[in-house]
Design brief:
The complex is a heterodimer. By secondary structure, chain A is of the alpha+beta class. Chain A folds into three domains: 9-151, Alpha-Beta Plaits (2-Layer Sandwich); 167-227 and 322-430, Sulfite Reductase Hemoprotein, domain 1 (2-Layer Sandwich), CATH 3.30.413.10; 237-315, Alpha-Beta Plaits, CATH 3.30.70.20. Chain A is built from 14 helices and 17 strands. In chain A, the strands form five sheets. In chain A, strands 8-9-10-16-17 form a five-stranded mixed sheet. Chain A is globular. By secondary structure, chain B is of the alpha+beta class. In chain B, a hairpin with a 2-residue loop joins β1 and β2. In chain B, α2 runs antiparallel to α3 (102-111). In chain B, 51% of the residues are buried. The chains are: A alpha+beta, B alpha+beta. At the A-B interface, α1, α2, α3, β1 and β5 of A face β1, β4, α2, β5 and α4 of B.
Chain lengths: 431, 358
């Protein structure tokens, strides 16, 4: 039995309604956990005053410099004593999830048991960077909780100016659009940088994210310093039985308005079967006895729309790999930046391919560590120095796939033009 | 003095997911052919070899107590072969290899208060942040805003009646940890920070704070004989970037920290290239416990989109077709001068054409 609940008229309102209520969950914890009782007290105060009452600090585990998010209450009485003393320390352990966030019930029950012994009993699946967040431990209990979580085979995630916890989509485990082994790439890359995860010493945070196809379910292009997004080089594959099944269900209007008209590069056409083009770069499949779709794969930008709508009838090609984009981030300080293409395509099939990806990550992080200003993300660094200087340092040749358009102003000194042309020609001849 | 022997960490990093994976997923890893959705909330995947798996998706409160976790485990053990996974939007998925298990599993989830849905063209769970529950710089709560809105949108979660999928997010400050979304709810401060000059010198690394400001509005100053910082309030854009490195520069205000609504963010490459979201409303009150005014605007935008967009148009695709003037007309939101971009690169957001819809 825990101590008596505080009155929480505001939070009580959040027990009403059909969506699962975190307040009901906290109250259940508060039946036998004083920390949950006082957490509810402090949260209710925030709801009444519209103010937050947590401050950071320095709490960690032996051997690591990061991964714990310290929280101390600032809600004190006139003598400086915490008003809600059992939640006066309410630290979070950030713990890295398995790729694709797969669990069995045995490991989830063990996590719950650990957190019942050492913490508040509140766990978030998952935080915005992908961490399992064990929320609410006293300073004294952090080490014991971590030791048990670590013995279970899990490790702390990143915090502060460090390589951060990563996420990968369900991918190859259950998705036909998967273009590489996301989980393998996720583990190989991240586990190369455990030191940079646990001991924050970079200019600022660095995030990797792994999405298996251009649907980018991990939202990597807008958030990751290095986004690895699956794609393919050869033709879209087709399945006539499933194409006919789709058409029988959806009909001509949907095929024309929802698929043909929505192809961003007009590579997707509807034709009478007798008019379908044959060719090395053409995919085609009959949808009825009279009509077929024809895709010019040279013009296709691998946007995924037709594949998403006609799943099974159409699917990504066989020559798969990934595009790597660098520099995505949200607002602060210079404004939102999308990741931009640095490697248009790389194969990710063999261990050697994967090692190339790890090596690219290593070189980008090394360059970032050396050249970024304090609190500057990779996207801001590249904006400051220019993409070409960044590519030079990475030893990557420029490629028109990296730009939305060529330069739109004449403010550049071009007296090295002839040498550059000669280099390109020499490379073409050597290839 | 007795020394406690501290345990050295095992730097194991990312754990192998294969030890936790459903056996049908493991067996057919990298070998799936296609999927369909027999009903909202259920994905049916078929492998090249003919194996099938049904995944039932349910909403959770994300911030879960251990009793909820154990309840979900009980359901997984009794109805779903003991394996689960979570989506990026904190939905839980139960995989079963036998179609006859799907209906009883759904019934059990619904009976225990976990709504089944979030697939296809639905409104999925709101990606969100920590808020007053755990953040050190929050302007508002996160879980409460999400709970309130999902209570109202639960039917849209359970159905697949939207033109395309709809992703929502909330964020308790302008750092926007909730992320880009079709519709996003984000704190927007409207007054410069209030500085406690007694504390600045001891708490803040002043040059670092000066460097954080995106508009160079902060400068070192001697205030009441103490080294402190001052803000040029005419330059200040009230972003709150100075507050995390310098907590005595309090940016949060119970009255003047407002809430803004942003629309049209999309990370998928499907159809148009990925887009960033745009601010379309601001000045909404931060009004716990149910944030009614915010919910009204979100629902107005959402249901205008639902009624007006064509099949497969994401919110950004819909606006691209109808244009911004009609967006504001249809949603009845005021287009104020504050929505005209003046940050770097802003001329790209002006209409450099005579393309005008009358």
């Amino acid at each position: 039995m825990a101590k008596k609940l505080h009155d929480t008229p505001n939070l009580d309102e959040l027990e009403k309604g059909p969506w699962p209520s975190f307040v009901t969950g906290l109250k259940r914890l508060a039946q036998d956990n004083d920390m949950a009782v006082d957490l509810l007290g402090q949260l209710e105060t925030s709801y009444q005053t519209k103010k937050g009452y947590w401050k950071g600090g320095t709490v960690g585990v032996f051997g690591y410099g990061g991964g714990i998010i310290p929280r101390f209450t600032e809600l004190k009485d006139e003598k400086g004593e915490p008003i809600y003393k059992d939640a006066a320390e309410f630290h979070t352990l950030r713990v890295q999830p398995p790729p694709g966030m797969h669990y069995n019930t045995d490991v989830l029950r063990k996590m719950a048991d650990i957190w019942e012994r050492h913490g508040s009993g509140l766990i978030a699946f998952h935080g915005q960077s992908g961490d399992i967040m064990f929320q609410g431990a006293t300073t004294d209990n952090v080490q014991g909780a971590f030791d048990e979580i670590n013995e279970l085979g899990f490790d702390l995630g990143g915090a502060g100016p460090a390589v951060r916890t990563s996420m990968s989509c369900v991918g190859a485990a259950r998705c036909e659009q998967s273009c590489y082994d996301e989980a393998k790439a996720h583990r190989m890359v991240l586990n190369t940088f455990v030191d940079d995860i646990h001991r924050p010493s970079l200019p600022y945070k660095f995030k990797f994210k792994f999405s298996g196809c251009p649907n980018d379910c991990m939202n990597s292009i807008q958030r990751a310093d290095m986004a690895v997004i699956g794609t393919w080089r050869d033709n879209i594959r087709t399945d006539e039985a499933l194409a006919k099944k789709w058409f029988a269900k959806h009909g001509m209007n949907e095929l024309v308005n929802d698929v043909v008209a929505r192809c961003p590069t007009k590579a997707f056409q509807l034709k009478e079967i007798k008019d379908v083009k044959k060719g090395e770069h053409v995919s085609s499949v009959a949808v009825s006895d009279t009509h077929a779709v024809e895709i010019d794969n040279h013009d296709c930008v691998r946007c995924m729309h037709c594949i998403n709508v006609m799943t099974g009838a159409l699917s990504p090609g066989k020559d798969k790999g990934a595009t790597v984009l660098v520099g995505g981030k949200r607002t602060l300080k210079i404004g939102d930046l999308m990741g931009t293409v640095v490697v248009p395509f790389m194969k990710l099939e063999t261990d050697e391919d994967m090692e190339q990806l790890v090596d690219l990550g290593q070189r980008i992080i090394d360059f970032f560590a050396e050249n970024a200003l304090e609190h500057e993300r990779t996207g801001e660094m590249i904006e400051r120095i220019g993409l070409v200087n960044f590519l030079d340092a990475m030893g990557i040749d420029v490629d028109p796939n990296m730009v939305a358009s060529p330069r739109m102003n004449p403010y550049v000194r071009t007296d090295g033009w002839d040498e550059e042309v000669a280099k390109i020609k020499a490379k073409q001849q050597a290839a | 003095m007795a020394q406690t022997q501290l345990r050295r960490p095992v730097e194991s990093g990312v754990p192998d997911n294969k030890q936790f994976m459903h056996p049908t997923l493991l067996k057919n890893y990298g070998n799936w052919k296609y999927h369909d959705r027999p009903r909202p909330g259920v994905l049916h995947h078929v492998a090249h070899g003919g194996d099938e798996v049904w995944s039932v998706r349910a909403g959770t409160q994300r911030q879960m107590d251990i009793h909820t976790i154990r309840k979900l485990c009980d359901i997984a053990d009794r109805f779903a072969e003991g394996h689960v996974r979570f989506t990026i939007r904190s939905n839980i998925e139960f995989m079963v290899s036998d179609e006859t298990k799907v209906a009883p599993l759904i019934a059990e989830l619904e009976a225990n208060g976990f709504p089944v849905g979030g697939t296809g063209n639905s409104v999925s769970m709101i990606a969100h942040t920590q808020g007053w529950l755990h953040c050190d710089i929050p302007g508002t709560d996160a879980s409460g805003v999400v709970k309130s809105l999902m209570d109202d949108l639960i039917d849209e979660f359970r159905q697949e009646d939207m033109p395309n999928r709809v992703h929502l997010s909330t964020s308790c400050c302008e750092i926007n940890c909730g992320g880009q979304a079709d519709i996003a709810i984000i704190v927007q401060h409207t007054k410069p920070p209030k500085i406690n000059h007694d504390l600045v010198a001891n708490v803040c690394e002043r040059p670092a704070v000066v460097a954080r400001c995106p508009v160079a509005a902060i400068r070192p100053a001697l205030v009441n004989g103490k080294p402190s910082l001052e803000v040029d309030e005419a330059k200040c854009v009230c972003c709150g970037a100075c507050y995390p490195p310098c907590p005595p520069m309090q940016i949060n205000d119970p009255e003047y920290s407002k809430i803004a609504i942003w629309v049209g963010g999309k990370n998928s490459n499907a159809r148009a290239k990925p887009t960033f979201m745009k601010m379309v409303a601001s000045g909404l009150p931060n009004n716990p416990p149910r944030w009614t005014e915010v919910g009204e605007v979100v629902k107005k935008i959402l249901y205008t989109y639902k009624a007006d967009a064509r099949p497969w148009e994401r919110l950004s695709d819909w606006v691209e077709r109808i244009g911004w003037p009609r967006f504001f007309e249809k949603t009845e939101l005021p287009f104020t001068k504050y929505l005209v971009d003046d940050w770097r690169g802003s001329r790209a957001n002006l209409n450099a054409s005579t393309h005008i819809r009358f």
